[in-house]
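Table S2 (continued). Query chain:
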Amino acid sequence: MKLLLPCLLVVASFASPAFAQEAANEGSSTDDIARKLADPGAAMVSLPFQYNYLGEAGPGGDFDNQLLKIQPVIPFVGEKGKFLLRPILPLLSNEYPADKSGVGDLFVQGYYIPRREGSAIEFGFGPAVVFDTANDDSLGSGKWSLGPAIVLIHKTSDRKWTMAALANHIWSVAGDDNRRDVSQTSLQPILTRSLPRSWSMTFSSESTYNWHAASGDAWTVPLGISVSKVVKIGHRPVSFGMGGFYNVERPEAANRWTARLTMTLVFPE
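Corresponding output:
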């Protein structure tokens, strides 16, 4: 597969010097950054790279796909609140449904989170937009889609737990008339435990419901766990992580499991 080796080499090349400097560079600053990375409402610029190996795809589970998501977080902070722009650009290398590699559909979410002094709960809302940017029919929906998005966040007073939920629903509004219309709901509950020495452990799901699919193929429900750690390379904070997911509910041809590696460049103020 075309993306696997380059992604592993990139992660390894960054990780080796990072962990060699770990003891000298750890401290409260990396702990704070780890907690902010666990908070989808944090007003901190970051550039995550999320590599996913999608195992046992296709009707007989005989294919493996790969997906690299480049998903920067760009905050805009004002006196009455903040707006977070979260584009996601997927790069795919698939064996199924076609042996194709390239760019998928660009997905952009934006959340406005009003300022709530003294509250442990944050609520945000905004748009979700899918742009028809795929360079092959098998890598995208062939549609332009949009809809609402929301985010809900709660952090415990001891700063050890972060609970969040992101949700959106999109409908197709334009695109190829010969492609199936889009009506899809996405739900992403997240529970993160902040651990000593800038480690974090996260339980999450990235479930979707396709309203146009047959009843047995409508839900995709992955359940997974991941761990991550923030270190410093020179003066640059970087988070490295890994995790695994299993689809407890899925369409017949969807992948059965996912292995994930992440690297996040952080640009604190």
